[in-house]
């Protein structure tokens, strides 16, 4: 006897269809929730966290393959004034207009995100510095020639940095931010590629013709000790901002930046077992470590036009009350650049993980800076640095713990 095909209950069929529909709706909602969590609502670019995650993955691939990568950061010129005059919605519209143009000049493989209130960042895989500079330049040119909002033209400044072997994303962002600062100070609506350009006169300007030597020294420091190299680059961004906040001339700001980059260069002469010791140094080792500012000065004085920078490096560990080293200078006898770098250097060291201790929370580090103002640190420098750190924290900068 032939069996009839099994006839499924119509109610069961309907229930199965409803379950399938519900599962599909859940899948769509989950997808939308994930997209919302990783996309900035104003620009539809990656959020800061999503950008960093994607960029870290790409840099890990770059380190394995040895291929180049370049990053540039973009800042809207006059963004704060725009917000103040027309409200935050106008600022978001301007930022969205810039983001739309940014998508036009980048590739699908590029990683593009909003990394601050008025800052966008782009990581360009398989791209060397000239290619990254060209891409940033296209964006600046497009915006310079178009009126994208009812409020008139929108211009941007851009800072470019090429990834170096062994460097972290934080160091790359820091170098790009330094370049961005130069572009803004030069008047905005331009690109700075992070290269120190040649020019005359050590005392009138710091456009050093030996920039390639400076770069080689910085790379040497990184290769010798990755923490020290990346630490120096983070100190650069903070020190330049403090110097600018104190009203230093642009030529002096450049010198402070160079000294901050190379303030630990004397450590190339310190033995590895001391430099990389996973514990606190004993008194004899500490005495040897204290020689690095003097060694650094000797190295830098051998480069024409670097005398002022060398002096800043020598006195970077002098305390405001005269208790520092190597010469026990105090107060205004210490070069202002040295006083700035000491405060920035100390903050970054306190908020960094080391083999022998965990990092200090940002709030505790700020308290320590304030506590030591007038003894270890110049009070005026301390006040300026705390202001800079507050601004960096508000903008979500990776420089602030």
TrEMBL record:
Q: Which InterPro entries does this entry report, sorted A to Z?
A: GGDEF_dom, HD/PDEase_dom, HD_GYP_dom, HDIG_dom, Nucleotide_cyclase, Rev_trsase/Diguanyl_cyclase
Name any one Pfam family assigned in the record: HD_5
Q: Which CDD domains match?
A: GGDEF, HDc
Q: Which domain of life is it from?
A: Bacteria
Residues of the GGDEF domain: 67-196
Q: Which residues form the HD-GYP domain?
A: 206-401
Task: Read off the PROSITE patterns from this record.
Answer: GGDEF, HD_GYP
What PANTHER family does this protein's entry cite? CYCLIC DI-GMP PHOSPHODIESTERASE PA4108, CYCLIC DI-GMP PHOSPHODIESTERASE PA4108-RELATED
Q: Which NCBIfam families match?
A: GGDEF, HDIG
Instruction: Provide the protein name.
Output: Diguanylate cyclase
């Amino acid at each position: 006897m032939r069996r009839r095909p099994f006839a499924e209950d119509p109610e069961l069929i309907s229930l199965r269809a409803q379950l399938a529909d519900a599962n599909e709706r859940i899948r769509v909602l989950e997808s939308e929730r994930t997209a919302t969590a990783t996309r900035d609502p104003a620009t539809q670019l990656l959020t800061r966290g999503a950008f960093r995650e994607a960029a870290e993955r790409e840099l890990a691939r770059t380190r394995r393959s040895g291929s180049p990568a370049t990053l540039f950061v973009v800042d809207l010129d006059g963004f704060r004034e725009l917000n103040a005059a027309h409200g935050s919605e106008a600022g978001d519209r301007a930022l969205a207009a810039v983001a739309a143009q940014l998508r036009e000049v980048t590739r699908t493989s590029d990683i593009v995100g909003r990394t601050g209130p008025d800052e966008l960042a782009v990581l360009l895989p398989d791209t060397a510095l000239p290619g990254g500079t060209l891409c940033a330049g296209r964006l600046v040119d497009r915006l310079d020639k178009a009126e994208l909002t009812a409020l008139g033209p929108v211009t941007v400044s851009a800072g470019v940095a090429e990834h170096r072997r062994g460097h972290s994303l934080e160091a790359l962002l820091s170098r790009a931010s330094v370049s961005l600062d130069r572009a803004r100070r030069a008047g905005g609506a331009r690109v700075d590629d992070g290269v120190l350009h040649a020019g005359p006169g050590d005392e009138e300007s710091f456009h050093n013709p030996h920039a390639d030597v400076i770069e080689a020294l910085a790379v040497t420091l990184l290769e010798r000790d990755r923490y020290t190299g990346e630490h120096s680059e983070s100190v650069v961004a903070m020190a330049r901002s403090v110097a600018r906040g104190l009203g230093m001339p642009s030529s002096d700001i450049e010198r402070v930046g160079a000294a901050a980059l190379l303030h630990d260069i004397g450590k190339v002469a310190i033995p590895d077992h001391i430099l990389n010791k996973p514990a606190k140094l004993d008194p004899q080792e500490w005495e040897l470590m204290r020689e690095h500012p003097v060694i650094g000065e000797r190295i830098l004085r051998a480069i024409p036009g670097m005398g002022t920078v060398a002096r800043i490096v020598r006195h970077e560990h002098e305390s405001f009350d005269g208790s520092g080293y190597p010469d026990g200078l105090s107060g205004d006898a210490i070069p202002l650049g040295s006083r700035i770098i000491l405060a920035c250097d100390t903050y970054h060291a306190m908020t960094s993980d080391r083999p022998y201790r965990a990092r200090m929370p940002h709030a505790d580090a700020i308290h320590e800076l304030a506590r030591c103002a007038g003894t270890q640190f110049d009070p005026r420098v301390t006040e300026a640095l705390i202001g800079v750190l507050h601004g960096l924290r508000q903008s979500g900068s990776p420089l602030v713990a």
